[in-house]
Amino acid sequence: MEEIKNRVFEVIKRVFKLRDLTLDEDFLREGNIEGWDSLGHLNLLMELEREFGIKFSLDDIERSRTFRDITALIERKLNERKT
Amino acid sequence: MEVAVLSNINMEPLSRFLNGCYFSGFGQYLKDLKDRSSPFWSKDFDVIWLHFDVDLEPPEFISILRNTILPEVEELARKRTKTLIIFSELCFPQYHIEHFFRKKKLFEEIQYFNKEIEALSITIPNFLVLSTEYLIRKVGYSNFLNENFWYAGRIKYSLKAFESFGREIKRIYKAYKGLIKKVLIVDLDNTLWGGIIGEDGIDGILLSEDGKGKIFRDFQKNVKKLKDLGVLLCIVSKNNYSDVVEVFEKHPLMVLKLDDFIGKKINWKPKHENIKELAQELNLGLDSFVFIDDNPFERKVVREFLPEVAVPEFPEDITVLNSWFWEEVVYEYFPKLSVTKEDREKLEQYKRNIRRRELQSKLTSYEDFLKSLQINLNVYVDDGRFKTRLAQLTQKTNQFNLTTRRYTESDIENFLNSKDTIVYALEYRDVFGSEGIVGEAIVRVKDDEAVIDTFLMSCRVIGRNVEYQFLDFIINDLRKRGIKRIFGEYIPTKRNILVKDFYKKAGFTEISQNKFMKEL
What dotted CATH number matches B365-519? Predict the structure, then answer.
């Protein structure tokens, strides 16, 4: 899980071009970060699909709008793939 | 590279793969095209890319494109001659109600439209077509689209699709600008054939009409196609020379012949040293070379010692050797819009140069050598037949080039058509044969003064005093036109130190640093 969190965090920094962001799980969510608006959200999730080689459903995209939701979702997807 | 994207769908994720993108707002592309006060018109772009997706539009969209948008685009191309206009060919929708119909009306319309833009790309020099079909086939339709993000926020294409669009646009731009390599260096063992000749012997190497050996036979056929495009081929291989000659001469399924290669370094020396020698022998910069080798060690050595040489990764699975070669080598390093006569004869021209050098080493004095060449020069003035070659020369010539100004074919066409600009093309021939157009000068004239904007010679003929005869011809021609003063200029680059004193030697006076003048 830690590894997933770090990778997601790196992608967030890259997508929103924020180098000095701190990994604050409660703070990282749509609306709190410059650029993370509804279009930014789509860009972020597209990058995460590429990063982890997974595919989100429409529901995934609409529901997962915080760092916690997203990392939990990715963990679930990666586990599903293993089993 | 600054790119403007005009589209009927959201293309913004492209900015992840292309820097400096401008996107017309949603539904704004027509306004951008028409409204000369929009920011789209006030900025200079290297490329304007128009991409339309017919899938989502009503049936009359194609006739709107043809009747309303295409004339605007033509106008755009003619107005903005410094900009390359790229138009994506229209794609058939994957799913369509007429799919099983004998007569597919929509398909016919799309085909007709694509034929029309293809015709434009032949008549308008700064207008080119992007093959969407090719990209979709490459990526695969289901990977090209993003149904989830489409319904979440109207992003129709996947990141993979945007990545391949970005790459394709860069390649088309490179082809347009002539930013391509000149030489392909290949390794032999496990590259031109399977196995190792020194160990497996001529009967043991893989090269056949079926099975794994066919991969290598096909590969050789593809390499030969590059040769026919005007790319020079070289071998750099650690082997015994006699083993290699045996394969080339005796193996019945070899496609390439030793004669197809202008340079052959078959020895046990480090490969980077061999490549350096090739660059000297061919009189080409290291950045003109692409090096292919299956051995990661050799690739690393060349990358480390000669960072200017392009060294693409080699496929780990040899099965994909040929598609890899097309995708990562041919399309990446050798994209071309057309082939000139000079391209087709390139190998022979370089061979003649080697024979000239042999003759030179036999003769005692350089003057005798020049005399024995029986050089014959021809100068063509404002001759449109050579416009492709003339653009190519400005793009590729680095050493004997006074100003290193790069021009596209449409720039050259403008010079040819302009009364204030004279374009001179120099043709060279000697006992060994014709070298085609090897020298070029672009001169701007105003009243009784002339400014030499461009003066260059192909490296193939440097050192035969041809440059002075060419300049003399130009001076005489300008005199006849009533010119009283000629100005020349030297713009130093890393590569053109050779011509630093050219104008001085030709009798011009230096009026300020690197600016020269001659009174007639």
Answer: 3.40.630.30
